[in-house]
Amino acid sequence: MLRPLDTATRERKSLTGLWDFRLDGTGAGHDARWFAAPLETTTTMPVPASYNDVLPDAEVRNHVGDAWYQTMVRVPRGWDGQRVVLRFDSATHRAVVWVGETEVVRHEGGYTPFEVDVTALVTAGEEVRVTAAVNNELTFQSIPPGIVKDTPQGRRQQYFHDFFNYAGIHRSVWLYTTPTNHVSDVTVATDVDHRGAGGTGAGTVRYSVETAGDEGATDTDVQVTLRDAAGATVATGAGAEGALTVTDPHLWAPGDGYLYELDVELVGADGQVVDSYLQTVGIRTVEVRGAEFLINDEPFYFTGFGKHEDSAIRGKAHDDVLLVHDFALLDWIGANSFRTSHYPYADEVYDYADRQGIVVIDEVAAVGQNMGVMSGLLGADPVETFTPDTVNDESREVHAAAIAELIARDKNHPSVVLWSIANEPESNTEASRKYFEPLFALAKQLDTTRPVGFVNVMLSPFGTCQLADLTDVIMLNRYYGWYVDTGDLRTAETHWLAELQGWATLDKPIVITEYGADTYPGLHSMTAEPWSEEFQSAYLDMNHRVFDQVPQVVGEQVWNFADFQTSVGVFRVDGNKKGAFTRDRRPKAAAHRLRERWTVIRGQGVTKA
Ligand code: GCB
């Protein structure tokens, strides 16, 4: 799906700002047709924002059900004759949208965009009412899963993942135009002949363009022009599909976010440009070869974090200030990568990663499909994960759609080098294999250019995992010294090394996607006891000693970049405290420790010594 852009033939109008807002715990608003009139409310809510922490009200924070948003928008005068599209960059976890009194779109999944052609419902120069009922309920058929319980005190949401169930309109909302006959999708994939003359062989940009329109855009042609960062044309092509050759390309590489721009034009029979779309292109290759993860044919060692979209008051809302600040902190600490744990992030994040040369592991919102973790660690009622009544065939359809939407949205980002189709699902049973086999096949079919993996949980250690042969890269979340061997780093080190040496026999690259220890900022301990800043540093040092003994380990991503909000529980003190930075992005001692290590690794080039 293409992002809305301002181009020579397209215009956008942002609908961010204050919207009227009303909670609806019983779903009454649908029958009462709240979309048909101005919302009866005096409450306004910023878009984008999670609504939960904006108002100091436990009812709002812990709301389960629909949240209604409404705004009036004047369609720009100049838009007459254009195709007009209404797009939500996300609405968490699902939404129904009306324009005036007409329902225009429904979407399932809280972290990917959806849009609809509303041309027939709007008039240039006139106002129109846009209403969205955004629902935050998690069930076994949603991604991520959860259970809504009816209790005498009201409806309660239980879920199986360790971050707060923030909800609302978290990203931008747009009205935008395209011409009637328009470019509807662009796919680019790049290749480099690394063994070419002088070692810097030609680059290839394969492109494929889809068009749509009233007459199927039949009497139009596609023309493409590839420009370098200085605006000079380096290649041109004609036709909906083709391959462009770039001699001596400036490769996109970790730390060097060099981008070309593909100008895609739809040209009418009279030679007039009907539509123009601009697609950024980073020329690079990604390959798994044996136990190596290669970017541009060079071994790459991931350093960085599992992150969250999370901050005080805003919750999961995208925020450009935080975006630029967080990336500056990644640079400061010497990190070259992060994982979008545990869901697709805002489009802006990937654009910025492309430009900054930061490598991204892109994750689907399938987190918590593991009832073992719940009953084992959190004492929840024991239920099986994969049964007709829990995570079932219908859940898998929703999961498949989430994978397809993620790949459709992010396929053109050079920063994205690896798809993660789930975090810590049950993976040691036949049922899990049956569930996941088709999902791996789907991801590989939808994108033949990137490796596909999933993140393995500690409850499915080496030797028991039934998905290990399906994953291109072994991604491990391990908490030796924290959840097991708590505080005993010497024992933890032995156990961790032993397990890792097992995984190393599979001859696949291993990325440690989580290791971390909760740390209360400012808490100190002469003997490095758990929760202290000293312990967090010692814990990281122990992990690094282990990784450095196993050549198949090609990456380390600390859990987490920053402290973040979770549901309440005896394991959490105002959220998860495993951040290297606090929630307001102040460094703990561990941040300085990581900086010492990672700036050295960065200084050695992409690979670890
Ligand atoms: C995990 C999860 C992550 C949690 C983390 C923790 O394994 O993947 O979502 O926040 O552990 O801190 O317990």
UniProtKB/TrEMBL annotation:
Keywords: Glycosidase, Hydrolase
Name of a matching Pfam family: Glyco_hydro_2_N
Gene3D superfamilies found in the cross-reference section: Galactose-binding domain-like, Glycosidases, Immunoglobulins
Name of the top EC class for this enzyme: hydrolase
Domain Glycosyl hydrolases family 2 sugar binding residues, every copy: 13-179
Domain Glycoside hydrolase family 2 catalytic positions: 286-601
Domain of life: Bacteria
Glycoside hydrolase family 2 immunoglobulin-like beta-sandwich domain mapped to chain residues: 180-284
Entry keyword Hydrolase: yes
InterPro entries: Beta-gal/glucu_dom_sf, Galactose-bd-like_sf, GH, Glyco_hydro_2, Glyco_hydro_2_AS, Glyco_hydro_2_cat, Glyco_hydro_2_CS, Glyco_hydro_2_N
Enzyme Commission code(s) on record: 3.2.1.31
Sequence similarity: Belongs to the glycosyl hydrolase 2 family.
Protein name as it appears in the record: Beta-glucuronidase
Source organism of the structure: Paraoerskovia sediminicola
